[in-house]
Structure formats: structure tokens, C-alpha cells
Amino acid sequence: MAALETIGPLMAGMKARADMAGLACEALNRMFQKEQTELVAQALRVELVPYLLRLLEGIGLETLDNPSATKAQIVKALKSMTRSLQYGEQVNEILAKSSVWSAFKDQKHDLFISESQTAGYLTGVSTPSLLAASSPLRGGL
Questions:
Q1: Which PANTHER family is this protein grouped with (predicted)?
Q2: pLDDT tens digits, one per residue of 36-83
């Protein structure tokens, strides 16, 4: 993933579809937890950190059902980026200049994150679907 341009297109998608920012922030959080230096370098190149800080201010999260959970994902992603051995100091310098970061950096955000914002997307519903009830394999319908 780090060998491809990943962060720029993801950020462009977040700007184009603000209603999907929560999912994108969860993806960013998970990607940066893997400590891939090249992803942090990409984030710095495309100015992801200032963009995420604007989201933390609430700008661009108005259409989300749960902006608190998205903000929690953003904080966790930014904290993961600061742990980069090669680029963490650059990320810290950007964060240190932000007034909004000082309000979020020491808070515990796990309370705002559910098991997963994408839970159920792949597993589907647990009750029988209407499609299964009208299946030609069921005969007699």
C-alpha cells in the first residue's frame, strides 16, 4: 500500500464525499497504526495533517451522523503519525502550531469509537433477507 499513492486519493475522496469522511478517517487510523513511513511521507506531501486539523475543528463534518467518533479516529491517526521515526517530528511541529490540537491531544477518545464504524457492511444482516425468501431455489413462491 505504501508503494502506491494512497493518501492523496483518499483525501480527495474525503473532500468529494464529506458524508464518507468517517469511513476514510477510520481507514487512515488503521493505515497509520501499521507504522509505514512512506504513508506518513505521503501525508506530509499532500498536507493531510492541516486538513485533518480543520476536520477536528468541525469544518466538513456537518453531514456526519457521529462526528465525535470521526474526530476520535482523526486524533488516533495523528498520534500514530507522530510515532514515525523518520517523519514524526515534522508531524509534531505542525501539530504544535495548532490551537485545536492542544484541545484534543490529551483526551481519551476510545469512548467515542464503537467496535467499528463499518461493522456489518461485510457480514450483512443477521435476519433472512427478502431476496432469500423470494429465491427460485425455495420453490412454491
A1: DNAJ HOMOLOG SUBFAMILY C MEMBER 13 (PTHR36983:SF2)
A2: 899 999 999 999 999 999 999 988 888 888 898 899 999 999 999 999
